[in-house]
Amino acid sequence: MGLLSAGEPMSWEEMKPWQLHVRKYGVKQFIKLYNRLKDEKGRALKWGDEVEYIIVKLDHESRKARVSLKAEELLAKLTVKEELMKEEVEKTGSSQIELLSLWRPEYASYMVEGTPGVPYEGSMSFFNTVEHNMRVRRNELEALLEKDEICVSLSTYPRLGCPDFTFPPTHPDPQNPDNFTKSLFWPSKATFLGHPRFSRLSANIRERRGEKVAINVPIFKDVNTPDPFIEDFSGLGDDGSSANAAKPDHVYMDAMGFGMGLCCLQLTFQADNICEARSLYDQLAPLCPIMLALTAASPCHRGYLVDTDCRWDIIAASVDDRTREERGLDPLVHNKFVIPKSRYDSIDSYLSGCCKNWNGYNDKELIYDEEIFKELCDGGVDVLMAQHVAHLFIRDSVSMFQNKIKSDGSYDEDDLDHFENIQSTNWQTMRFKPPPPGQGIGWRVEFRPCELQISDFENAAVVCFVVLLTRAILSYKWNLLMPISLMDENMKRAQKRDAVLNQKFYWRKDIFTVSEDSDPQIEELSVDEILNGIPGSDYQGLLALVREYMRGLDDVEADTSCTLSNYWQLLSQRASGKLKTNARWIRDYISKHPSYRGDSMVPENTLYDLMVDIDKIQKGELKDAALFVRAERKSKTKDIKS
Ligand code: GLU
Ligand code: MG
Q1: Atom in ligand 1 nearest the alpha carbon of residue 266
Q2: CA-CA distance, 435 to 382, in Å (whole number)?
């Protein structure tokens, strides 16, 4: 979820005098790097996925499932090979060690993040290795677990923050002055403490905001749910602030972990050059809400069924460091801007030349720092990019490290650390990533909306679809752009319960228009129509377009083709509602469980059964035709070679 610099992180008070420094020099670093690398071309297409896993401990006797707080212990083992490789490279300049996976800590101490050891490249055969590599990663992790432990690729662990949800047992401690969250429900040890960044970040966000974060998610009102649904926090050590912040008929949460302790599936692409990266950033942005709705997997929070299906707004609220002034609740006195969104949210402006053809795309007033904008423009950065960076830089740094700040006020102009400081805590649906200095890496973009699916099969399907769409978009120069304000509306609709079935999304039907200066043809379509097309019209749908793109390629082996058509079938049937989304499937599982009392609460033994069954599903030991059907494979997937 961001850069892990070595060193001691600073407190909010210690950071205050350095905010200007980080912003000022972060911009200078960006300008220098931009001018040095803006004309660089010819980087190979490379891409990779990231999966965040949750470790679960099962108590078979009492039929309880708890998150297991052992990420630090696991990471020490998971990263041994990588460390060896680094040592070898340092000593001899190269290494024979082949890494199939890379592992990183995440916000929670029950989470680990795994990526392929090396990025995938352009050849079509790589699509046949994605799922296999996900399986290899999972196996590596599983091999280190105890007999009674499993790892799950779930966006939300349904009983986070409930009594007794961790192993070993931990307790929230809201009144302890050293407690960095002050949460009534989230124990400090559920945050990954192996690196000081995460706890500091939580404290700094809370302190900058001036109060605890407040996450309110509408509860799913079932037959026996109290009406109105109002919780009493007085026995939990509430000083009154939680009772004030909690909305009636909502599930209330008060810590960063309830958001950043959720998991997702992300993709990063390296582009040939900066223009291609900018175009990918823009073209993938309208796809974010659609993929969020299609991958929806978060129907429960803090032990309750909620009335939404996705994690997005929950994470946004969990890291919302805006002050009351910035949220528009008090007049601006100490702060500079009223800021409509959290640091975690959807993008606010497009970046590529495509959006210049019609001036309605960037239709929202972009808030940015005028001085920074001017400096970027004077430094040779074009207006769209300058606005983008100046917009990111309206945020303060919420994470600084002592060793990154030089006491004489100087900075390293060839580094990008100050820029990255602000960039890496702007968590938007898309991220535009400048090349990290000295690493031989090009301009990249990150696609960040997707929720995690239970099985590697489903996750691989999502990954392959998005990657192939990028290939097709770039080859055929499709244009998916629509006004930013419509994308924002789509993000809201995407998170609603059963959005795939019940919502319509603004979508552009004339995506083949290369350049135009007239209004795009935007209609409201269902996810089914967007993916599967509209019968009787000339809009064939994204899946047909991806298939057509593949037909034009000459390097698709039969085996890869077979793998992919299985994936397309899954996505097509999810879009049409023939198969359930993960959210709907989890929802139904809980509601139909004999222990469920129709009161929106997820009972402990229901969760236990759910975890056991999810584990069986991902292992292929249990099949549920309502979730996915997978045609049997004739040949095996290949090992990764790169
Ligand atoms: N877990 C976060 C999410 O679900 C993302 C953290 C990251 O940026 O890696 O969106
Ligand atoms: Mg992550």
Answers
A1: 9
A2: 18
What is the identity of the amino acid at 318? S
Q: Identify the band that residue 614 occupies on the pLDDT scale cut at 50, 70 and 90.
A: very high
Closest-approaching ligand to the CA atom of 262: 1
Say how far apart CA 593 and CA 604 lie, in whole Å. 11
Report the pLDDT value the prediction gives residue 641, as an integer from 0 to 100. 37
Of residues 33, 3, 115, 22, the one with CA closest to residue 415: 33
The SS3 assignment for 515 reads coil
How many CB atoms lie under 10 A from the CB of residue 85? 17
312 lines ligand 1 (CB under 6 A): no
315 lines ligand 1 (CB under 6 A): yes
376: CA distance to ligand 1 center in Å? 29
Q: What was the pLDDT predicted at 1?
A: 67
Is ligand 1 within 6 A of the CB of residue 52? yes
Q: Name the closest ligand to CA 449.
A: 1
Q: For residue 509, what pLDDT band results from cuts at 50, 70 and 90? A: confident
Task: Fill in the amino acid letter for 491.
Answer: M
Beta-strand ranges (E) seen in 219-283 are 250-253, 265-270
What is the Cα–Cα distance from 281 to 308, expressed in whole angstroms? 27
Which residue, chain included where needed, has tokens 């509430």? Answer: 238
Say if strands 300-301 and 304-305 run parallel, antiparallel, or are unpaired. Answer: antiparallel
Residues paired with 103 in a beta bridge: 114
Please enumerate, as own/partner, the contacts of 506-515 that have beta carbons within 8 Å and a separation of 24 or more.
506/482, 507/286, 507/290, 507/482, 508/286, 508/479, 508/480, 508/481, 508/482, 509/537, 509/539, 510/479, 511/478, 511/479, 511/480, 512/476, 512/478, 512/479, 513/479, 514/477, 514/479, 515/354, 515/357
Give the position, in ligand 1's atom list, of the atom nearest the Cα of 449.
Answer: 10
